[in-house]
Here is the input.
Amino acid sequence: MATITSLGIGSGIDINSIVTQLVALERRPLQLMKTDATRLQEQVSSFGKMQSLYSGLQTASNALTGASLWSRSAATSSDASVVSSTGGDGAAAGNYAVSVQALATSQTLASGTTYTAATSLVGSGSLSFQLGTWNADQSAFTDKPDAAAVSIELTDTDTLQSLRDKINASSAGVSASIVSDATGVRLSLRSVSTGAENGFRVAAVEGGAPGLARLAYDPLSAPSDMQLSQSAGNARAVVNGIAVVSASNELTGVIEGLTLRLRKESATPVDIAVTSDRSAVTAAIKTFADAYNDLSRYLGEQTRFDAASRTGGPLQGDSAVTGLQSRLRGPLNASSGASQVFARLSDAGLELQRDGTLKINQPKLDGATDKLQELQKAFAHSDIADPANNGFARRFSEMAGQVLSTDGSLSTRTAGLKKLIDKNTDSQTRLNDRVERFQQRLVQQYTAMDATVARLNSLQSYVSQQIAALNRPRL
Here is the structure.
């Protein structure tokens, strides 16, 4: 809007104030439009939040209808310091006795000769590492299939420290470390993986600077300065009377769906119990209740009327939201033929409160999880022929899916609100244009009037001067 600065100079009338007030009156509907636009935007945001909450309810409901939840198992160990377990989701329920006869080990060597410091030179040439299996007295060595020897080249400037780094950077399957004791510094070599087939031998080819030969290890060819601290070996266990051998201390596949982790030897069998995972079911039901309550509370907040402040929520009186509230409570008010034990949600420990939310009766829910098959029916059963026999979670999932669909209540209502916002924006633009033209007309009209009044005032002044001259006494 153009700024009015010079109106009224000729006439002395406060035309600027008159035009400003007239334009303000003409512009007053714009404020109402802006208020409406803000209200519509709030409603769109409310429906967006509602969409997210319905999606959360659908996700929680789908978790209760999926077969994986109800078939999930949990494993416990009578002595986790000997054998622990991981996984167990797909393991068959049962009891397993596990005794650990031997743990899987890595071959470990330490240099017999000590070095003054980690910066001591080790000699030039090459060290070659070959993975494989030693027999019991190390009188025979069998190369590990598909594991080629790895050679490391060393110069006369290489130290114990740089040798360690080169070994660790290689793919030899052997790790190196430097260990200090009272007598000096030693090189320690250890196979990266456990298991008998991950033993190793070390061949040395010396270059110009001697010294590498003392790091070789091959009892088959010559005595070695490298000392064997531990041989590579397989884990040996007995599971329900069946002997099991493994290169790793983690036994995967011995019990389907379960991994046993061997921790120490023990002649006394450890009991591994695999049972239905009731805690997972309880957690999923609580998540469902939380999702339902979040949505129920939000719908209540958006439609609530505060008598004290005489203000309503953004969606107070919205028939679409009132319909959604009724649909949300519908599955709670109707019994289900899916389970004869849990015909209503309250039978399973989910009780409807006066404010429309669900409260978990924990003792009742704990008792319900003792009957998982019936509880699964109550939540997840599907009956295409007779929807009255559908489980409660399935009902809520289908209801949420209908609400969230492209032609569902949320989508159609949101689309309608966005059209109103677009219409409001167009109306504001048209009103601004009309007010601008109205102001221009007023300025033109009052400018013309101001000029006319200025001329009349000038004429009046001239006439007054002439009359005064005529009435002046003659001498």
Q: What stands out?
A: DSSP finds nine helices and 20 strands in the chain. Residues 49 and 293 are 14 Å apart (CA to CA). The chain has a mean pLDDT of 88.
